[in-house]
Amino acid sequence: MKFSQYYLPTLKEEPKEAENISHKLMIRAGMIRKVAAGIYDLLPYGLRVIRKVEAIVREEMNRSGAHEVLLPAIQPAELWEESGRWKFYGKELLRIKDRSNRDFCFGPTHEEVIVDLVRKDIRSYKELPLNLYQIQTKFRDEIRPRFGLMRGREFIMKDAYSFHADESSLHEHYEIMHATYTRIFTRCGLNFRPVEADSGAIGGDVTHEFHVLADTGEDTIVTCPTCNYTANLEKATSSQEKFVQKNSTGTEEKQREEVLTTNLHAVEDVARFFHVTPNELIKTLIYVADNEPVAALIRGDQNLNEVKLKNYLCANEITMASEEVIKKVTGGQVGFSGPIGLTCKVIADYSISGMKNFIIGANKADYHFKNTNFTRDFQEPTYTDLRIVTEGDKCPKCSALLMFKRGIEVGQIFKLGTKYSKNMNLTILDKQGKPTHPIMGCYGIGIGRTAQAAIEQNHDNDGIIFPMGVTPFEVIILNLGTQEEKINRAAEELYHKLLQAKCDVLYDDRELRPGFKFKDADLIGIPIHIRIGKKYIENNTVELVIRKDKHISELSLSEAIEKIHSIIAKELSHA
Ligand code: ATP
Ligand code: MG
Q1: How far apart are the CA of 411 and the centre of ligand 1, in A?
Q2: Whose alpha carbon is nearest atom 16 of ligand 1?
Q3: Which of 39, 368, 436, 476 is most exposed, with minimal Cβ within 10 Å?
Q4: Whose CA is nearest to atom 14 of ligand 1?
Q5: How far is 106 from 141, CA to CA, in rounded Å?
Q6: What digits encode the pLDDT tens for the residues 5-20?
Q7: Cα dist. 9→32, 33, 46, 70 in Å?
Q8: Could you give the CA distance from residue 302 to residue 277 in angstroms, rounded to a whole number?
Q9: Mean pLDDT within 99-103
Q10: For residues 400-436, b (16+ Cβ closer than 10 Å) or e, as one string?
């Protein structure tokens, strides 16, 4: 491609609308332009990166035995009614009507459509396992679209759905997808981690998110520097020993007292009033789990993980209790709840086990109890893990200290079970000839998010540094003397030789100052730069510059070609 004929509008200024560095760089490098919140144009240079990511995804998905399909973006409401999601999917679902006033939606995901497809033709366990995937445009009316392609409303996703006759087949395929994702993100040149995530399933089956590590990532990842334990914040657990040992150091039980604490309900305020630290208080949080009130106890300095509470209770939904429910369950005012005399189920986090002489709400406006103790004052509750892990907690596997990192979720692999096959009546005959519902898995990758994450992770002050696997062009030739016939000839020759060798090459043949061309080349992040200028006139040499470290080698044209091929081959084979 010749730069002079290309549509690559680069910008010198920082775009005001951009919120993170990759977003800024994509606008400046002429890759994307905003149309509306979370909706973007992909320009030729941006589209090339998307196509490279897609090609890697396609190759690896095909290699795993999956088959590509292309399903419609617009889906009829009837399918979503069958699955039960038409009512429950919230405002993220863009609902539309056709001219006959029939309901449709713009697909945010494709479980319904794929089950509807497969149930038309699949009859027997012999036709399974089956994995169908597509690379297609989704729409989710995200509450806060931001960071360009990273959290768009319209975005390209690779989504795959697998069907299995039994659990072991799903498990086997899940591992294949895990390995496939690892290859995909490695080939994209990303520093990533597979991260354990909450499955929402009763029994807590594991699922994984794949995160690209970046300080600006939206998600917190909990990771152990010693063993390989890595989980997202919702899922992460820690060794409980630290609490149990610390709490049980308390000595003899003191007399319980009711104390007037006018208007004090925040933990910090109550602790200050009693001249103690928050870890000597127990918080009593009242929730409603599928219409049933429940009290969760946790130490004052800790925070409750609602996902863990929901999973422990096997609930479909949990919400914080209303004032009315709190009054009914505790007999007291909001902000002064305590575990004595509750009329609902009580569960507790490990953080309070072994505590002595602690402070709790008295279930009475403006009062707390001090010197409360288990058994004597109220029945010791059932303990489970309900807390949000904090940095420095001990790893649940090896007891080293856990660290927090930031990540961008680029993909997820998930065991879906039979929810959709059951609700939508997808039935096959099993080995015994009995009708059964296939077990499903689903596997997503955000194509645009992955492309942008590669930039978020690979840039410097001058611009993008594309990994070889996803770069729009592998080489840029910078003609630094467009008035010189000798330079023009050499540059053209190099350009054609590289094209012939199937190299992705951009030739900057524009009649512009060298400084201007250097700036653009650095900004758009092509990994190998060839500068042809004065030195070529003097001694027939060109400069080969590595964008990443700006290392320069002076070479003859033929040496440069050889070196280009060897760098590309080496970088692509590393992946
Ligand atoms: P998130 O938690 O970031 O909202 P999700 O869990 O809703 O993501 P999935 O339903 O698992 O996402 O979708 C699969 C993949 O699609 C994600 O791993 C992510 O890479 C991508 N993705 C999801 N939402 C968006 C979005 N709004 N913009 C761009 N990519 C997205
Ligand atoms: Mg996800």
Answers
A1: 7
A2: 446
A3: 39
A4: 444
A5: 10
A6: 999 999 999 899 888 9
A7: 10, 10, 11, 32
A8: 12
A9: 98
A10: eebeebebbbbbbbbbbbebbbebbebbbebeeeeeb
Question: What is d(CA 394, CA 399) in angstroms, rounded to the nearest whole number?
Answer: 5
What sign results for the dihedral spanned by CA atoms 17, 21, 26, 30?
positive
352: which DSSP letter? G
Query: Phi and psi (nearest 5°) for 153?
Result: -100, -45
Per-residue tokens: 341: 């005399």
Six-digit token string for 492? 């053209």
Going by CA atoms, what residue is nearest to atom 8 of ligand 1?
409
DSSP annotation of 151 reads B
Euclidean distance between the first and the last CA atom of the chain, given in angstroms as a whole number: 26
Q: pLDDT tens for residues 169-222?
A: 999 999 999 999 999 999 999 999 999 998 876 555 779 999 999 999 999 999
Question: How buried is residue 228: exposed, middle or buried, by Cβ count under 10 Å (0-12/13-18/19+)?
Answer: exposed
Tokens, residue 13:
């200024």
On the 0-12 / 13-18 / 19+ scale of CB atoms within 10 A, 502 is: exposed
Distance of CA 98 to the CA centre of its chain: 34
**What does the pLDDT average to over 93-119?**
98
CA distance 192 to 403: 16
* Ligand in closest contact with the CA of 407: 1
Separation of 209 CA from ligand 2 center, angstroms? 6
Residue 116 CA to residue 120 CA, distance in Å, equals: 7
DSSP 401: B
